[in-house]
Structure prediction request, 487 residues.
Amino acid sequence: MGFRESVAVQVPAPGLVVPGQAGSDWRRPLTVVLLGLDAAVALSTIVAAYVIRFGTSSVFVNDLDYRWVVPLVVLFWIGSLALKDAYDSRLLGEGAEEYKRVLEGSFRAFAVTAIVAYTLKEDVARGVVLASFPIGAALLCAERYAVRQWLVRRRVGGAMSRRTVVVGSRVSGRDLIRRLRLVPHIGYHVVGVAVTSGETGGQIEGVAVLPADDDLVEAARAVGAKTLAVTSCPEISPDDVRGLAWRLEGSGIELVVAPSVAEVASPRVRVQPAAGLTLLHLEEPAFRGAKRFVKGSVDRVGAVLALVAAAPVLLLSAVAVSITSSGPVLFRQQRIGRHGEVFSVLKLRTMYADAEERLAEMLECNEADGLLFKIREDPRVTAVGRWLRRFSLDELPQLVNVLRGEMSLVGPRPLPVDGAAFAPAERRRLLVKPGITGLWQVSGRSDLSWDEAVRLDLYYVDNWSPSLDALILFRTVKAVLRRRGAY
Prediction:
């Protein structure tokens, strides 16, 4: 790769326990566990459907012995999931692809069962089949979600992750290490970095620098790595990547390439081979059209339903605000909306009436950076206000802003600043309506830095979709129920 110096690799001392060191051992046992759980769910669903339909008096229906039919259908089902690669360990922990494959595999199993029964002219109970597969598919997704939550907790603790060596320049290597550490739940634990400058020894982001030459594969083996993650940098040519892939054949080490195209969701990326090259076509972000109409419709319908459901809580909260401190129940503040338009955001008042007058004296206590203003123990917040913020109940009146078309259920949070205060890249967040909740709120809430919050907002703006909105809303509800505090 243009660097030829080599030195001895520092190998962890015998007996030293490194987080994620068991990365080579967890995949097969987890696959076995998933197979067992999936089979148990499929079997339970079909048996329950049969018992509800025919009772327990007989195992024969239309001269068919269901003691044989049920295991065969379960076998079809699990086999279909396996053919759809629903047990690929790389899918576990992040994204919707795992659930998509479970659903597609379940549909295929349903189709295979129906075709086989028709071909053999066997009168399989249609009611059992029609009830089992959709319900079973939903239960399989719920089971996979439970396993994912367990796996995520393990990975955040440093276990059940792929030990990874990052390959690239010092800048690109440092950037990838930082990004992977932000998402430990996807299962990449960096144990070494090979830099294109040829240097060895020392550390980058607390990770040992390994030789990035012909000894790279041996160096990766020495630290127990199961993945090489190659970053995009001028020093690494396509021939280098191809040669590295050849050297990894049969080694048990997988190769991952992190392209220079970042912050682009997979639905916007289309891979096309051309003249021996792999071209990535990037679709433009959708800011108008049918998807925008669907988003607006969902916003308004969702806001109406949410207001109706939350009306008792909203009324009790308003009463609590009015009787515990003087001032209006609703707090109105000018915020920046889509295309820089100014609107009045509505919130239940959580501060004392003179909070705005006292803002100037509180500026030096700001604990946030950038354009954010945050004080964890703000003395201007009332006792009721702290409770409202803890459960995010003060945000409920913003559903009215959604009905007015000023806000969306999901989007970048509206900020009380002049649009001119945004840097050019930051103004891009104004291409969509601000939201009651957003990607950075469910990714760390107030603990994120301004730069990280902007990065997540821009990712949402460029890659939003109905499924992403649904995921953010789900995570928002989960975060509120877990009492993680105010946004």
